[in-house]
Write a structure and sequence with these properties.
Blueprint: E1 2-6, H1 16-29, E2 34-37, H2 44-53, E3 58-63, H3 65-70, E4 81-86, H4 93-98, H5 106-112, E5 114-123, E6 126-128, E7 131-137, E8 141-143, E9 147-149, E10 155-160, E11 180-187, E12 193-200, E13 202-215, E14 218-238
Parallel strand pairs: 1-2, 1-3, 3-4
Antiparallel strand pairs: 5-6, 5-14, 7-10, 7-13, 8-9, 8-13, 10-11, 11-12, 13-14
Length: 245
């Protein structure tokens, strides 16, 4: 049983034609299903939990990165396979990682049902998928409980799980290796940049004063962060052009 979650923005009249074609194609492929429409006062995660309790086995998110982030806390927590049907003009980095084309072409990829068990990151009590960024910092981070490392001068720290492609088409982060890519960027002087790339499964950050941390683009403030990997936690439908094996 398929359950399709339509984000608010795709319900705009400008997407009527796209959705009409998509729904017809899903019917032709035999993977049509119940539709849930997000609205201002609807909790997306509760909608999905209710439908999974009623028997939904596959949950397809129709929208973009923001759609994905709205339901992040329930992915990996319910017994369902998740997919993404990208629609819109921006915010397609999750689709890029998963190898899902935009719009109508996504239907055939979803129908093929290539399923991968992918890693989910946890920071304190919340899930994240792509990365954590600590900008302009010299805060030390403790890796796997064994040693600490910090930028030699103030710089950016990235903790990546699912990574988009770099300029050479290589994935920045591997979502199926059970490890984070920890990347520390420092600008030593005008000419010298320093970059350190490590792999770890757990990271602890403790500071005296609160600092900003960006979790999949959303800012949170705190003084204590426990970051750990939940391997193979999310069952996702992927395409042949995904950015990982």
């Amino acid at each position: 049983m398929y359950y399709y979650v339509y984000d608010e923005f795709v319900q705009d009249r400008k997407y009527e034609k796209d959705l009409f074609q998509i729904e017809n194609r899903l019917t032709d492929l035999g993977i049509s299903g119940k539709i849930g429409r997000l609205a201002l006062f609807k909790d997306a995660c509760e909608l999905i939990k209710d439908e999974v309790r009623r028997g939904a086995k596959s949950v397809i998110l129709v929208g973009n990165d923001d759609t994905f982030n709205k339901v992040a806390k329930v992915i990996g927590e319910v017994k369902a396979t998740f997919g993404l049907l990208p629609l819109g003009d921006e915010g397609m980095s999750y689709a890029e990682v998963l190898g899902i084309p935009k719009g109508l072409l996504a239907c055939d990829v979803l129908s093929a049902r290539i399923i991968k068990e992918m890693d989910v990151g946890r920071i304190n009590d919340r899930n994240f998928f792509q990365k954590i960024v600590m900008p302009d910092t010299d805060v030390p981070i403790r890796c796997d409980g064994s040693y600490s490392i910090a930028p030699s001068v103030r710089g950016d720290i990235e903790i990546r799980n699912w990574g988009t492609a770099d300029e050479n088409g290589r994935a920045l982060g591997n979502p199926v290796d059970s490890l984070f890519d920890v990347i520390i960027h420092s600008q030593i002087d005008r000419k010298t940049k320093e970059k350190t790339n490590l792999k770890h499964a757990t990271i602890d950050i403790r500071v005296k004063k609160q600092i900003p941390v960006y979790v999949d683009g959303e800012r949170i403030n705190g003084s204590s962060f426990k970051i750990k990997m939940a391997p193979n936690k999310a069952k996702m439908i992927v395409g042949k052009n995904r950015l990982f094996e």
